[in-house]
Amino acid sequence: xxxxxxxxxxxxxxxxxxxxxxxxxxxxIHGFDARSGIRFPAFFKRELHRHTARFGAMPRAxxxxxxxxxxxxxxxEVGAPADGDGAAVRCETLVWSDIVHSDLARPASRKLALLxxxxxxxxxxxxxxxxxxxxxxxxxxxxxxxxxxxxxxxxLIALGTAIFAAVSPSAVADTVCVALFLAAAALALLxxxxxxxxxxxxxxxxxxxxxxxxxxxxxxxxxxxxxxxxRDRVLAEMAHWRANPADAPxxxxxxxxxxxxxxxxxxxxxVLARLGTDDRAHPRLSLxxxxxxxxxxxxxxxxxxxxxxxxxxxxxxxxxxxxxxxPQDWLNCYGFNPIFDLGFGRPAFLACxxxxxxxxxxxxxxxxxxxxxxxxxxxxxxxxxxANFRPGExxxxxxxxxxxxxxxxxLRPICRRAAEPKTGA
Length: 425
Description:
Order of helices and strands: EEHEEEHHHHHHHHEHEHHEHEHHHHH
Oligomer: single chain
Strand content: 5-15%
């Protein structure tokens, strides 16, 4: 793989020239957002309307959103267009926003204590330097809370104490008292600036940093339990389709965005493990990860379970995994390739996954919008899920709703042409 040009096809990938998809079932796993589980279906409908308008596609019937009694799934159906240029799709959002909400609701003191522990673990492992290979903006962004909470106050306390000692030579006890006073003032300032820091996404980024560390070190039983719930949900659908082949879709697509990409990887690996060597006909199983931050977890020494799950997918020919990356996205570790960067101890030519492709962000949106978005990390991050302004090999809605399978689209993408501008009579 060449750094800077995001395109990689595994050596052992089986190009099966799959038939067009008439029906697809999509399991979507959102990122670290306390509201995505609720608002993604409405977001999807809005962006689908924009996609239809921009590319002159035929309108599709979209069903009402149904929420399961346990609140962990929200689903809706998108009908095939009348001209047959698209698949009939059932979309299902797998919800873990309640876990995210509980993380964001922690007291500030608890968050800072956990941040300190995660930072110490990251520094001892050299995680900052390991992840900087995959995009310095994400690495700097993840270091932002540590700098604001600990480094900047420590520097100011040291500077203030040094100035006091130089200007007013006095007993050591007086200097220590000044240092303690400055430390108390720094804490009070940090507490008083909670809302202002929130507007800079300080607490959100801090919580993500903590989650990376807790995930890698096995300190999230609630997260592990939710993965099991999602796995069982996918397996239940697969069992139903085996028993009722007439209901089976042509492709089952697991989609993970942002932190949801790691969860999607783990769900897909566990589904494969549970299916075992069952050679009965299954729907085609595919996995797509968008804007992933996998290295921040997978490169930590303790993340053995995640690395094992990634290895399961890398060397399996029973699933197609495509990872879309974007250098413009501050929250995406671009250039990461698990085949070469995780060291599985097996020859790279045995790898079947993942295909790595560029999301082509700069080419699909107008220049003025691009200039505005590139300094808004979270807005840029969601370009993976938004309707294109221009035709491109990456097109979220063509991938989800189109007739091409994920494998076919990754290898031989068909780009929809933009709608002709309307002219007056």
